[in-house]
Specification:
The chain is an alpha/beta fold. The chain is built from 13 helices and 12 strands. The strands form 2 sheets. The chain has a 6-stranded antiparallel sheet with strand order 4-3-6-1-2-5, with helices on both faces. Bound molecules: flavin-adenine dinucleotide (FAD) and protoporphyrin IX containing FE.
Amino acid sequence: MLQARHIETVQSTLPLLESAGTALTEHFYARMFRDNPELKDVFNLAHQKSGAQPVALFNAILAYARHLNNPAVLSQAIERIAQKHTGFLIRPEQYAIVGHHLLATIRELAPDAATPEVLEAWGLAYQQLAQIFIGREAEIYDQAADTAGGWRGTRRFRLIGKTQESELITSFEFAPVDGKAVSTFKPGQYITVSISHPSLEQHEFRQYSLSDAPNGRSYRISVKREDTPVPGQVSSYLHTQLQVGDEIDLLPPAGDFFLNVEHEAPVVLLSGGVGLTPMLSMFNNLAQTTGRQAPVYYLHGCENGRQHAFAEHVAGLCANDALLHSFTWYQAPLATDIADQDYQNTGLMDLAPLRAAINGDKTEYYFCGPLPFMQSIHRQLKAWGVADNRLHYELFGPHQSL
Ligand SMILES: Cc1cc2nc3c(=O)[nH]c(=O)nc-3n(C[C@H](O)[C@H](O)[C@H](O)COP(=O)(O)OP(=O)(O)OC[C@H]3O[C@@H](n4cnc5c(N)ncnc54)[C@H](O)[C@@H]3O)c2cc1C
Ligand code: HEM
């Protein structure tokens, strides 16, 4: 049981951890993958190479150690991580492996500081956090299984539609092989693709935001082909190998980023590039919602007309509903783009000219896209004084603060 003296001991090691930086989590992952190579089938190794996952883990551990007296302040972060973990089918027994490598890392990187008291205190603190995750993840797995049309673990789906939406983005629609219903989801949530295939070095899990409103029969995702610096493993597999009629394993919908607004709250959806997928699900859902009284603005930025997915679809929804509005930015329009009506602005998304129209006390903002896009939107909205609880965002990779 974690006691005040343990908390004090853990917190006394904070300066040491801070100075070790992500060397700590990099060492941790290196030794874990060396001794437990089976976990390479669980983690996304591209996120290890980019360093994003070691940074996310390091920040989480530091934040937890700082708030050991009151872990409730971390409830949002804990929910996000628990949701993420269930998208990788993390199991309770794997916590002991991670705990073992975490303590060994402290011992190996800081042999002088790693006294028996320090190791005992960190061991207890880790167990407390592990129990929080294990408990919440069990609830998420149970909820996904117990909901109508839901399931536990993987379920076999068949690709029933493959539609090119732009030069880089293709949509994939999946229906379950068992022919039964599928669970609903909250617009903004994702499903996870679980793939073992000879073209992949190891088993992979990848999250993809659902790009349409729930329909109870099938799920649609829309995937960008990742080409640089090397072809992305799963996106390439989906684009080039998976054909209509082929089967694939999916995990149930999950995620803590979803539309949650009152009928009278104006909504601004902002996306950059393939970040449009959760926004489309939200936009389609809002378009179908009867009784809405407030406007919805969909702001999207992309490179040019060839990369502008779902342009006609969005324009069609707006033409039929006076409460729906859309504005589009092309960063570098092509000569062929000038003639059409698919964009209004050139360059990066600058919200200033729209401020009077879109910003109000009750407006809720949802945004998703590449990191520099998200940082720019966040900066602009914070400069308007928008409160944090009205800013909702999703990153297509390990979490980072904006
Ligand atoms: C919540 C969530 C929702 C998402 N929703 C969507 C969505 O709706 N649509 C969508 O398209 N994506 C979405 N993503 C991203 C998606 O999960 C994948 O990360 C994406 O498809 C790339 O996966 P991949 O296997 O193709 O690429 P990976 O093989 O994982 O590679 C990722 C990137 O790293 C680069 N890379 C790989 N190896 C190396 C190396 N050795 N050196 C340097 N660079 C390297 C690749 O070139 C590529 O650009 C989402 C992610 C999350 C977390
Ligand atoms: C108390 C212990 C743990 C902490 C503090 C922790 C923390 C985190 C954090 C901060 C993230 C990133 C979340 C995000 O992107 O929003 C993450 C993702 C992840 N965690 Fe954990 N985790 C713990 C235990 C585990 C265990 C036991 C496993 C299983 C071996 C695991 C596997 C993963 C995987 C596979 C991801 C996704 C990685 C990716 O996107 O590349 N974690 N975890």
